Amino acid sequence: MKFAFFKGCRIPKDLPEYELSTKVVLNKLGVELVDIEEFNCCGYPVRHLSTKASILSTARNIALARRENLDILTPCKCCYGNLMHSNYMLQGSKDLKNEINLILSKEGLRWEDDIKIKHLLYVLSNNVGIDVIKKHVKYPLTNMKIAAHYGCHALRPGKIVKFDNPLAPTIFENLIQVAGAKPVDWSKRLDCCGNPLWGKNNNLSLKLMREKIEDAKLADAEYICTACSYCHIQFDMIRKRELKGDESVPNIPAILYPQLLGLAMGIDKNKLGF
Q: ∠31-44-104 over CA atoms, to 5°?
């Protein structure tokens, strides 16, 4: 099983542990990830500034994967959402497709609707499979209480991203359970973490994050588990920097899902980027 590994921009810069843990876990599970050096930004940061520039960014990445005849795997839900959204726009407009392909043709590239885009959690659940993962779990994280944070861009709009049921998803909880941990039932599990507002309305961004952490605490969660670079940066880096010393915020750390699963598989902490 082989995929083109689309890590996006933030993981190499801010979350190298996400790349490290994803690669070591998937390697143990028989999944090969191929790095394509020419990959560019997914287009998410400019999506609301220039729709066409965002779509072109996506189309180029898909065309690069297509050149290698590989489907795309990404661990970032913002990247996943934008890749799927742009793909949807290209599927629905022959004129847009022709315009984008005219630009790509200068590099000898072409977008076509024949490359699948998959998020890390989807690959683990549907391509690898829960039963296969179970066989690799050596040290189940028995009774560890985990709040699964889904993130927005993998769930909405449901007809475009097709990740899971946008109103009642279960994929993340199932993957937490296979690691031996206990997913908690918390009311804000599908709410935004606040990161898309960071830099635009920081007070509201922190308010949304604080409310999620408080809700996870009410559900007795010991960790908030993430599977998105932007969400993890919000719950880890921004929280530590902006809410440092604020004792009113419950002390519930964030953990990346491949790190959680890697621990249950008996992989050394250093290899998981702790």
A: 80
The helix/strand/coil state of 39 is coil
Count how many domains the chain has. Answer: 2
Say if residue 17 is exposed, middle or buried (CB neighbours under 10 Å; 0-12, 13-18, 19+).
middle
Q: Could you tell me if 108 and 143 lie in one domain?
A: no
Computed on alpha carbons and rounded to an integer, the radius of gyration of the chain in Å comes to 19
| Tokens standing for residue 36 | 């394509």
Whether the CB-CB separation of 61 and 42 falls below 8 Å is answered with yes
C-alpha atoms less than 13 angstroms from C-alpha of 68 in its C-beta half-sphere: 20
Determine how β-strand 182-183 pairs with β-strand 145-148: parallel
| Domain boundaries, position 87 | 2-119
The pLDDT tens digits for 90-111 are 999 999 999 999 999 999 999 9
8 Å CB contact between 272 and 259: yes
Identity of the amino acid at 174: N
> From CA 185, how far away is CA 144, in angstroms rounded?
13
